[in-house]
Amino acid sequence: MRAQAIALAAFALCASASAALAEGSKALTIGSKAPLTDTKLKNAADGKDVTLASIAGKKGTLAVFTCNNCPFAKAWEERIVALGNDYAKKGVGVILINANKGETADEMQARAKERGMAFPYAIDDKGAVARAFGAQKTPEAFLFDKDGKLAYHGTIDDNSEEAAKAQKHYLKDALEAVVNGKTPPQPETKSMGCGIKFPKVS
C-alpha cells in the first residue's frame, strides 16, 4: 500500500509538470563540459552566491538537480546527502540545485539543515542552469571528472523506496571510479523522478 501511495503521489506531481518537461533541452552527453559554470546561484543555506566553478573539486564535481517535494527526491534524499558528504571529503565538489518554481529559500534552508548537507543547496530561480544541462527530473545526477568532463549522468540507484534493497548503486560506483581516475562502470542510466517544474522565462 505504501508503494502504491508513493507511486500515485509521484504520478500526480509528474503529470502536473508534463508541460514543463518540453522546456528542457537534450541532456548533456558523456564527455561534455558543464555549461554556465560562472552563473551565480544562491545557496539557500547561507544566502551567499555560489557557482559551479567555485565548488569544483580536484577529483571531480557532482551536481544533482532535486527539490523538496517530489516523492522520488525525498525518498533518495538521505542517500544523496550521504554520498555528497562522503565524497566531498574525497575531493569531489558537490552541489544540489533546485530549479522548481514555487519552492522557497526558507524551505530549502530548513531541509539543508535537517539533512546535514555539508555542501550548497542552491536556487536556480530562472531554471537557466537546469535547462542548459538538459535536466528534466528530480533527482537527476551529473558527475564530472577531474578534467571537467561528464563521466556519469542518471539516477541514484535501482530502488528509490528502500535503500537496503538497492542492488545497483549507480551513482556511488561512478563516484568511486571518478575519485580513482577511472571510467564509471555504467556511465549513463535513465533518470527516475518527477518532472522539473520550470519557472516561466520572461
Walk me through the structure.
By secondary structure, the chain is α+β, with helices and mostly antiparallel strands. It has one domain: Glutaredoxin (3-Layer(aba) Sandwich), CATH 3.40.30.10. 34% of the residues lie in helices and 18% in strands. α4 links the parallel β3 and β4. 44% of the residues are buried.
Tertiary shape:
globular
**What order do the SSEs take from the amino end to the carboxyl end, as H and E?**
HHEEHEHEHEHEEEHE
Number of discrete helical segments: 7
Report the sheet-strand fraction: 15-25%
> Helix coverage percent of residues?
25-40%
| Strand arrangement across the biggest beta sheet | 2-1-5-4-3-7-8
Could you name the CATH class? Alpha Beta
CATH topology: Glutaredoxin
Which radius of gyration do the C-alpha atoms yield? 15 Å
Low-confidence stretches: 1-23
Structural class assignment: alpha+beta
Q: What does the average pLDDT come to?
A: 89
Under CATH, the homologous superfamily reads Glutaredoxin
The rounded distance between the terminal residues' Cα atoms is 42 Å
Strands, count:
9
Number of domains: 1
